[in-house]
Amino acid sequence: MSSHKHGIFGYIIRTIGVILTVSVLAGTCLVPSRVRAQKDLTVDFIEYTFQTLLGKEPEGEQYGFWYRNIKDGNTTAAGMIEMLTESEEFVEKEYSPEQTLALLTKTMTGKELAEAEKERYLSYMESGVSLRRFISDVSKTPDFASVCAQYNINPGSVEDLEPRDLNPELAVFIGEIFTEMYGRTPSAKESNVWTQYFREGKQVAPTFQQIVVSSDYSSRGVSDDQTITSLCHLMLGRDATSEEMGKYHEVMENGMSLDYVEQMIASDPSFHSRCAELGIVPGEVALTQPRDTNYEMTSFLNRLYSRLSGKAPAGEELNDFVLRISEYPSSLRSVIWDMLSTPESREILAADDDFLNTVFEVFYGYQPEQEKITSYKIALSHGVTRERVLTSILNDPAFDAKMSEYGLDTHVEKEVPKKIVALTFDDGPYTDVTMRILDALEPYGAHATFFVTGDRVVRYKDCIIRATNMGCEVGNHTWNHTTLTKISGDAVHKQIWDTCDIIYSITGTYPKVMRPVGGSYNTTVSENVGLPMILWSIDTNDWKYRDSQHVIDEVLNNVRDGDIILMHDLYETTATAVETIVPALIDSGYTLVTISELAEYKKVQMENGKPYFSMRG
Questions:
Q1: How far apart are CA 241 and CA 294, in angstroms?
Q2: Based on the domain organization, do 378 and 478 belong to the same domain?
């Protein structure tokens, strides 16, 4: 602050000097003509300086003014030269910067300015550094002292320099900033303010970050590519290499913001070296946008969105996606479904092949095994929804493993409900009954397991597809309701796997569980069935009584956590009973799950050929 006041005081003194000079030149200060008669070295210096800088002899009044001030010690040789360069007469000469430097060099040293020095000071002047800096520098040289000694005059020096003159290299840097970023040169005031700003320790990198988002810069409509080129030139003091530009383009194409590129540039050793040379603080770029905080995740989401919608996401969209997923990694699955549900995605991925290939390529970076593609295509072709297929794909452990590469823990540990029960239905499907049961389950998001016979699958496939889309499980109940204990091992195998194949041909998924007809099994059945055998802990005997209330009472009066309840989706009375049972169980705190979900929650590793009556624990 003190140097600033000092600079203002010096400016006032110089201004007064200029006024006095003008007054003298106008003849307002009368001096006895005998001064000219007193030819001495001081007079010679005055004449020499006037002749060199202004191309004329000083007038009588001018002799007296300068003679007295020099003799009285009010000014020095450097002070006189400085004030003459600020006079109207000098300004009216309209010397070019090169001519000005040449004249001053000749006046103060009697020599010519070296080419390198001339270029340096010309660059200073182009960047707003005043001529006072040049006069100040030359006034400290032996050559100037030698010239002044010839005239026996005090050389003096130019003090009280303004901020822009105190650090001309920094002023040049500021001039480059204005030229590159604002398309103009800075005013003297701007140069002083900015120089002081950096001299006080303000950080450079954040300043560029602010410039790029300022209205003065953005209103110019400069492309990101040109912005990066300018930032490299200014911050690194050189052009970016083709390899560097390639990296900058790559990260922006992957969804990162310009701030991220600025941070890359600011981390370059060249930037820190340049700041050290200028004596300023480099600082760091603050990454405030969510998408800039995780490059791997942002690039994945950007790639995903672009492939699924045919266009790159806007920065704010990426920020929203990243923010949601960072706070709740498990929400990634819903974000993905949101992307796939857009009209653009549906149009681009209209074909099931395109949908499946794109999903696998973007998620995993490879084409899946043909078996997987085939199974999902089968399911889609028969009406299994893309959402259900996607759920299956995203529930694969491979998805969590891939997401961990992006720093995301998408693994969701299912919360175990306090009480769970599995409703199971045998012998169907049958549209009139099965659809009513599904109607009863759907509003609650409840699940059940349908043990179907193979010979009914094709005829009632709509029931199976709907059950699959709702997250219910389709189990195996033999091909034609055969009691397996009465047939050979090979026949058992055929009964089961013919049914598995027909279910696969509709849903694209093989059953994970089976139920032997009548609950009958023996060693032969266990050895050939090839799936876990699911029995029951509550038998409603709905097939026997055909009484809705009987079924309701059997379930609600006997149900316990972990039970497997046996019913049949062939009877209207069963459907009627289920319409009461489902809300009643839910009101009692039960969660209705499939057999596979029941085993998962109860941590039961089901084994092929082994019977399970319940999973009460």
A1: 25
A2: no
Q: What is the rounded CA–CA span in Å between residue 113 and residue 120?
A: 11
Question: Catalytic amino acids?
Answer: 426, 568
Give the pLDDT score at 35: 46
End-to-end CA distance of the chain: 80
Structure tokens at 107: 């006046």
pTM for the full model?
0.71
CA atoms within 13 A on the CB side of 137: 18
* Per-residue pLDDT tens digits for 173-208: 999 999 999 999 999 999 999 999 999 999 999 999
Strand segments (E) across 97-144: none
The SS3 call for residue 590 is strand
CATH number at residue 512: 3.20.20.370
Residues 279 and 311 in one domain: no
Of 404, 438, 458, which marks where a domain is finished?
404
Question: Number of folded domains in the chain?
Answer: 4
User: Any idea how long the chain is?
Assistant: 617
The arithmetic mean of pLDDT across residues 142-166, rounded, is: 94
- pLDDT of 5 reads 37
- Mean of the pLDDT values across residues 527-545? 98
Residues ≥6 apart with Cβ < 8 Å to 427: 451, 453, 477, 481, 568, 569, 570
Nearest by Cα to 585 from 557, 613, 566: 557
Alpha-carbon distance 50 to 573, whole Å? 121
CATH number at residue 186: 1.10.3130
Helix (H) / strand (E) element for 403: namely helix 397-404
Please enumerate in sequence order all residues whose Cβ is within 8 A of that of 559, keeping only pairs 6 or more positions apart, or say none.
421, 538, 565, 585, 590
Domain span including residue 203: 166-286
* Burial tier of 281 (Cβ tally within 10 Å: 0-12, 13-18, 19+): middle
Residue 412 in any domain: the answer is no
DSSP label of 140: T
Contact (CB, 8 A) for 323 and 301: no
441, 480 Cβ separation under 8 angstroms: no
Which residues does residue 474 pair with via DSSP β-bridges, in sequence order?
Answer: 450
Query: Residue 140 falls within a domain, yes or no?
Result: yes
Q: Which of 127, 142, 160 is the last residue of a domain?
A: 160
Picking from 4, 20, 14, 16, the residue whose alpha carbon sits closest to that of residue 158 is 14
Q: What is the pLDDT of residue 413?
A: 81
Phi, psi of 449 (to 5 degrees): -120, 130
Nearest 5°: the CA angle 186, 191, 194 is 115
* Shared-domain flag, residues 434 and 569: yes
Residue 363, in any domain of the structure: yes
